[in-house]
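Curious: why this fold?
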Amino acid sequence: MATTFRCRLITPDAQVFDDPATAAVLPVWDGQMGFLPMRSAFVGEMGVGELRVDFPDRGNAKGGSRSFFVADGFVQMLNNELTILAAHAVAAENLTESDAQAELADATRKADQNLKGPAGEKAIALKRRAEAKLAVARKFRASGAI
């Protein structure tokens, strides 16, 4: 039985990584979903939040985990390969709490304007995205991984 699966994170700008993984947890539109080797087939809409990928040991190098802020897109698990197509992805180590707080303040200002229709929905979505980005930045900082 396989102990790893192929895991790819792809954005419109780049292939962020394509490596063996032992586990992955990511946001889907209605919560969180975990993936392990040999998981049954799955296709779903991604949500907004933290993607955490656990990597296996390689030779003398100990595996580890990486976290990313991801937003929107789709995920597919098929034939022991997890493909994550994200509209936005930023490695947690590249996030700063101050930038995320500034983004949240701007998004909150826009959402508080009580816009109607699609503009209001977009403002609320941007606020939720900024809140999730701030949460990932804070969690990464609190982990002491900086």
Observations:
- The helical segments are 97-111, 117-142.
- The CA atoms of residues 30 and 47 lie 7 Å apart.
- The chain is about 30% helix and 40% strand.
